[in-house]
Amino acid sequence: MSSLVNVLLILLHLSTSVRGHHGCGGGEIMRRNLGGKLIERTSPTDEASAAAIQDITQECTPYSYAPLLQLAPLYPTTWETASILPNDTDALALFQQISQTISSNPSFNLAPKGTPEGDFSAVQYNGTDVDCWWPWQGCTQPAPQTGLPDDITSVPEGETWGLGFDDGPNCSHNALYDFLLEQNQKATVFYIGSNVYDWPLQSMRAIKDGHHVCVHTWSHQYMTAFTNDVAFAELYYARQIIKDILGVTPLCWRPPYGNVDNRIRAIAEGLNLTTIIWSDDTNDWKVGDPTVNVTEADVNAAYQIVVKGATNGTYKSTGPVVLNHELNNFTMSEFIKEYPSMKSAFTHIVPMAAAMNWTHPYVEQNIVYPDFAAYIGGQTNVTIGPSITSSASASKTSTPGIQSGSASVSGGSNSTAGEKNKEGQGSGAIRFTINWNLLYLLLFAFVL
Ligand SMILES: [Zn+2]
To answer: Do you know which PANTHER family this protein is assigned to (predicted)?
Structure first.
């Protein structure tokens, strides 16, 4: 009898805690280092031990992370289209507000376009581009009457490279992050929610190393294809997993494939997420895609076009925001290879937070990033003050710094995995979680 109960309990545990990959939205992501069953390995157990691994195979061997197993019931399935969970009252309440804004404004109340996989062949679109649909003609400036801010496509400082990496955390990013650390170079990282879920310890390294984290949706698909509630969920749960695992609530996002229009921008605005596109593409993500013939030489050339721009006057008054990826080992090693020439050509290479003078790039106001002047002056570290209550209206710009009692991020992790308060959003209700591991231990003890 007891063995039967044990088997049933094991099956129950597996069914509730193991989250495997189920494929993903685009060819770009299909080539990343896939994860698998999170229960397969019990180490590493913390950010530092994960960051110390040098072997790529070991880095990308799935592991279990207890706080995440507890959070599993609060999230959609990884790599599948997100939807608002029926019992998520905070998400439902916030979506209700945003939904009213969308439906009451003709500029936002637009029909979805295309498929989540990026097939737009059936889309009948008006050539005047009133929706400011980026894939159409690269629109990044919504009409003034929409009240929407322009997308960010450049940095306001001349001869300055706005540095960012999309699609992380990549399980094998230690070599890249080690390199950035050696160079005292911070970056903005656009994290996919499902990747944060799959590789929580790798994602925590971004905060430990002082990088700037933005949202890159839950499942990395074409956002304009989704209905309002799904587009909301794609942003909401990506932002929330970053909060739960990294302890910060981002205020910026990048649409996968640049696929955004005014409806999606308005939903992002409702979540306090500023839209960041790019001015230049290294095309690193295209190498290895059998549908296009892009080679390493093409990527080198694309990098060098941007590098030359630093000497031919292209970036005299504003700097580029360049599309780089931590998508796979090629894209990461390509950046490392090109970095010396970038560094010698550009006066500054800075993360988006520093470039935009976002000293408070998260809802959590006690986390202070250096502004541009401080960053280029050599003060690249993030400071973390005493935790304070934050508000939904938290601004990215120049709120008074809270420097007292600050400590370097590198001196102590700010990770708050398992934290259940939703700072800055909704009612502040505590999210309901079940400590399955503890429950099973108790049940086993009882049965045995
Ligand atoms: Zn991407």
So the answer is: CHITIN DEACETYLASE, GLYCOSYL TRANSFERASE-RELATED
CA of 229 to the centre of ligand 1 (A): 21
pLDDT over 60 at 326, yes or no = yes
Determine how many CB atoms are found less than 10 A away from the CB of residue 33: 18
The answer to whether 139 and 260 have CB atoms below 8 angstroms apart is: no
**Tell me, what amino acid is at 408?**
S
Determine the distance separating the centroid of ligand 1 and the alpha carbon of 326, expressed in angstroms: 9
Listed as own residue / partner, the contacts of 175-182 with beta carbons closer than 8 Å and 24 or more positions apart are 175/54, 175/56, 175/332, 175/333, 175/336, 176/326, 176/332, 176/335, 176/336, 177/51, 177/205, 177/206, 177/209, 179/336, 179/339, 180/209, 180/211, 181/209
Structure tokens at 128: 């005047």
Q: Which of 166, 167, 198, 280 is catalytic?
A: 166
Q: How confident is the model at residue 394 (pLDDT cuts 50, 70, 90)?
A: very low
The CA distance from 163 to 409, in Å, is 20
Domains annotated on the chain, with CATH? 1-115+132-448 (3.20.20.370)
Alpha-carbon distances, residue 421 vs 54, 246, 249 (angstroms): 35, 13, 11
pTM value surpassing 0.85: no
Question: What is the distance in A from the centroid of ligand 1 to the CA of 436?
Answer: 33
Let me know if 216 is a catalytic residue: no
* Distance in angstroms (rounded) separating the CA atoms of residues 102 and 99: 5
